Amino acid sequence: MQLTAEKREVLGKKTKYLRSEGKVPAELYGRGIDNVHLSVLTDDFKTAYKEAGKNAVIELKFGDEKRPVMVYDVHRHPVTGDIQNIDFYQVKMDEVVQVDVALDFIGESSAVKDKDGVLVKAMQSLSVEALPANIPQNIEVDISVLEDIDQSITVKDLPLADLEKKDVKILVELDSVVVTIKAQMTEEEDQAKAEEGADIEGIEVEGGEKQEEGEAGAEEDKAEGGEEKKEEVKEG
Predict the structure, then answer these.
(1) What is the mean pLDDT of the chain?
(2) Do 187 and 103 share a structural domain?
(3) Potential cystine with 56: which of 52, 72, 82, 232 (Cβ 3.0-4.6 Å)?
(4) Are residues 202 and 104 in the same domain?
(5) Do strands 83-90 and 125-130 pair parallel, antiparallel, or not at all (unpaired)?
(6) What pLDDT, on a 0 to 100 scale, did the predictor assign at position 123?
(7) Is residue 212 part of a domain?
(8) Which residue in 73, 56, 66 sits closest to 134, CA to CA?
């Protein structure tokens, strides 16, 4: 997958005009390299991101240079969802990187459908370490095996054999719970739980009455001013 970018001189809030021209500001950074301020066509990026995904390696072209990168982060407007900024991380194809791979929940649980169970997702992604070319786009979690209340799927129950063949190392405990089925609480139990101040932030609940509520309020513009971006991706 290839994506063409352009170097840019404008920084900070002045980048607003780029978006009106169908472009989005981007930052390229990585270990041992200087930050590069770029812009890419919004439609081109959307196409590449849709086809390649977050964890795929993209050949980023600007000027006479071609660099292997991964999409580290996409910053969106909290209201409109429009792309505001993009962070690209330059990788070395012969060095492992650590990333979070999204979990793709597939199938239907009979415990939810027939027994009024509540599907509680304790994880939304899985931390792994691998060479950039071997990182999967997602890891499937088949919830159709969940047939009873209090039944769970742990990390070791996931299809890990294919990952092992590609030397993908799982960085979480294999006994960690990925998803479980809980019985729905009665109104009295629900009220008592609320009064205890139970913290369920970060856990997605399906099939029951409780739903996670996200918090809006991200800043519209990311200050870019040429500051060095702290490296956050661990490499082996």
Answers:
(1) 82
(2) yes
(3) 52
(4) yes
(5) unpaired
(6) 96
(7) no
(8) 56
Higher pLDDT, 183 or 19: 183
Q: Are residues 21 and 84 in the same domain?
A: yes
Does residue 78 sit in the same domain as residue 39? yes
Burial of 2 (0-12, 13-18, 19+ CB in 10 A): exposed
- Contact between residue 142 and residue 106 where contact means Cβ atoms under 8 Å apart: yes
Tell me: do 76 and 11 sit in the same domain. Answer: yes
The pTM of this model reads 0.68
Q: Is 232 part of any domain? A: no
Percent of all residues in the chain with a pLDDT value above 70, rounded to a whole number: 78
**Predicted local distance difference test score (pLDDT) of residue 98:** 92
Look at residues 94, 88, 98, 161 and name the one whose alpha carbon lies nearest to residue 127.
98
Name the residue range of residue 186's domain: 98-206
pLDDT tens-place string over residues 119-177? 999 999 999 999 999 999 899 999 999 999 999 999 999 999 989 999 999 999 999 99
